Amino acid sequence: MWEWDLDLCAGEYDGHWETLSEEECERANKFRFERHRRRYVAGRGELRRLLGRYLALAPSEIILRYGSDGKPFCATQPAEWTICFNLSHSENMAALAISNGFEVGIDVEQFRPIEESLPLEVFSVQERAQFTALPDAERQNVFFESWARKEACLKALGTGFILPPTHFEFDLSVHGDTTPRLVGGEAEEAAHWRVLALSSSPACAAAVAARRTNWSIVNMN
């Protein structure tokens, strides 16, 4: 697992820009604000650099494709290799999970005011009851911890966001590493999942998820 700050200096920005594909450059140029463009370039450029370290390739030689669900994958690896990855960013923080042989999902959520409608969209009926019973002082942390878990699971599932966040249901009283209580309403399916919490910054919640139980996080920074 890798983490980095997207607000890079000019020299690093220029170096990352040179490694991007034509499509990525076009997308970068569509950002209205310079800060957002620079963060996008820093995210994609560093992703390419890190994948290149694993594959012994220059960052510009990395070919990124997209599955039918829109999830990116690396098309530049030997046939016998199965490197999977997932990138997430929130404000200036980026986090990358790389795995060997199984799909992985990661999500980072900066703490911010909770929009009134969001708990209704994110939580199941049972989760919503737990959330409503929480003291006001605890709600922000619990909400974004839960959101990061669900997003990470959906990204690991590889189906994009066709499924609603309520597809994965958690016990909101459990903090840190956990397993979903239900997946698609089934406890048996939930037992196949593992969700690990990241605590690198007090200003955000983050989680890594995979549909397997025998894995752990190795911090590479």
Automatic annotation (TrEMBL):
Keywords: Transferase. InterPro entries: 4-PPantetheinyl_Trfase_dom, 4-PPantetheinyl_Trfase_dom_sf, AASDHPPT_N, P-Pant_transferase_sf. The keyword Transferase applies. GO terms for molecular function: holo-[acyl-carrier-protein] synthase activity; magnesium ion binding. GO terms for biological process: lysine biosynthetic process via aminoadipic acid. Residues 104-196 form the 4'-phosphopantetheinyl transferase domain. Gene3D superfamilies: 4'-phosphopantetheinyl transferase domain. It comes from the Bacteria. Belongs to the P-Pant transferase superfamily. Gsp/Sfp/HetI/AcpT family. This is 4'-phosphopantetheinyl transferase. It comes from Paraburkholderia largidicola.
